[in-house]
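Researcher: Quick test of sequence recovery. Tokens follow.
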């Protein structure tokens, strides 16, 4: 922390800003967080022996084990298993799921998994990964409580037109369940000629790998989008570690779910770039700039600014945003995310029961009524009621489309207004945003 200020000094400024904006702030919790950041750095990675999780020490300050069993249960669906002498894995929570202490209304169930493949050659490692991923998808296509949606794997070897969309050469490929089962994608060249791209063909350069499902949780009575983003490495016989996508991801926003994963994590972490923190902050900064100038979304910008501020010593701004995420209006993020999930559940081929979808829509309406007031509540409930009425006649596989898009658009507008008002009312945050907007390439 900046040596010119102490936690109490910072806390007073945060309290003043929060009160001006009508934000409830738990002063004791905020002081505890600031004090924890101000003490000696100590070990960069810490283990919670009580519940068996570990992660970067700043990340662990934001993690609550309250829903740990829930996340471990979904984790058993999305995770890849170890294969002794061949595949080593370490599964972690990421995104808002790893910040459950401060984000009362997280969006999706996001996971991150390190997969280290021991093989004689890179080519063999890529083949093993391709086989692992395809088999994982085939094994989890659908069930009473889950439905596979899509996977990112490989990149287009040439420009193609797929489903009416232009896909540039080198861009990531999104595979549907049907395409994974067939092991190929059928598309057109820009001149209209048919072209077939196979799973095996793109496996030599897997690139960005991410799998997505929709999960119905009968215990909590909720639907959720569950994703697993993979960071895959090849370990050669001489012990050399090589990321298959050319970059070994840092670990600044991950909470690993099993203490038994410490050895594989430690082995890979020592190969993370010495400039990893600077590179991570730069990546987040570029994302903030995008959400402030192109794809306007002040809520997403705020989430990324929080991570930037807490990792770069701007603790006063970070503490303010920490409280902001616990505000009732921020639950709109959960509603927005779940509307997209409802849409996924209504698409062709889903195994999620329509009654579960209707139940989730009812829960969304009740949640909005509980936490919002006035014009915000009226606008959101109006769109959700329209959406709910379409579900009474909807059959599985018909989709929501128009009503879902209308509700999503309204929610994004309200979310943007809420976060814009709060962010720009804090001078240092407003200045930071304006500087990024001015320096847009």
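Model:
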């Amino acid at each position: 922390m900046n040596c010119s200020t102490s936690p109490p000094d910072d806390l007073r400024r945060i309290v003043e800003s929060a009160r001006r904006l009508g934000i409830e702030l738990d002063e004791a919790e905020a002081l505890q967080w600031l004090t924890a950041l101000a003490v000696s750095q100590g070990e960069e990675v810490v283990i919670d022996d009580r519940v068996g999780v570990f992660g970067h020490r700043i990340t662990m300050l934001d993690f609550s084990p309250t829903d740990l069993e829930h996340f471990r249960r979904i984790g058993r669906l999305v995770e890849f298993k170890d294969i002794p002498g061949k595949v080593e894995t370490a599964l972690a929570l990421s995104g808002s799921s790893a910040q459950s202490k401060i984000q009362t209304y997280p969006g999706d169930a996001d996971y991150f998994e390190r997969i280290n493949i021991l093989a004689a050659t890179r080519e063999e490692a890529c083949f093993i990964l391709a086989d692992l991923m395809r088999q994982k998808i085939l094994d989890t296509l659908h069930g009473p409580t889950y439905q596979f949606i899509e996977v990112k794997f490989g990149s287009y070897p040439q420009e193609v037109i797929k489903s009416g969309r232009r896909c540039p050469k080198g861009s990531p490929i999104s595979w549907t369940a049907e395409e994974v089962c067939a092991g190929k994608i059928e598309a057109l060249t820009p001149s209209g000629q048919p072209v077939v791209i196979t799973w095996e063909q793109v496996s030599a350069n897997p690139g960005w790998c991410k799998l997505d499902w929709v999960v119905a949780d009968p215990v909590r009575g909720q639907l959720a989008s569950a994703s697993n983003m993979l960071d895959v490495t090849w370990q050669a016989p001489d012990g050399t570690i090589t990321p298959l996508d050319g970059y070994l991801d840092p670990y600044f926003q991950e909470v690993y779910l099993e203490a038994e994963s410490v050895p594989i994590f430690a082995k890979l972490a020592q190969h993370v770039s010495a400039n990893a923190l600077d590179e991570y902050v730069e990546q987040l900064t570029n994302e903030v700039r995008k959400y402030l100038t192109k794809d306007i979304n002040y809520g997403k910008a705020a989430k990324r600014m929080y991570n930037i501020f807490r990792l770069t010593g701007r603790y006063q701004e970070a503490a303010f945003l920490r409280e902001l995420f616990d505000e009732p209006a921020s639950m709109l993020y959960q509603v927005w995310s779940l509307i997209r999930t409802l849409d996924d559940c209504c698409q062709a081929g889903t195994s999620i029961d329509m009654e579960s979808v209707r139940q989730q829509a009812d829960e969304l309406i009740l949640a909005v009524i509980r936490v919002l007031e006035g014009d915000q509540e009226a606008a959101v409930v109006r769109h959700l009621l329209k959406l709910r009425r379409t579900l009474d006649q909807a059959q599985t596989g018909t989709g929501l489309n128009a009503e879902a898009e209308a509700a999503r658009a309204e929610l994004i507008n309200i979310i943007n207004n809420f976060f814009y008002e709060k962010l720009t009312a804090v001078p240092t945050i407003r200045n930071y945003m304006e500087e990024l907007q001015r320096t847009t390439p």
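Residues 45-272 form one domain.
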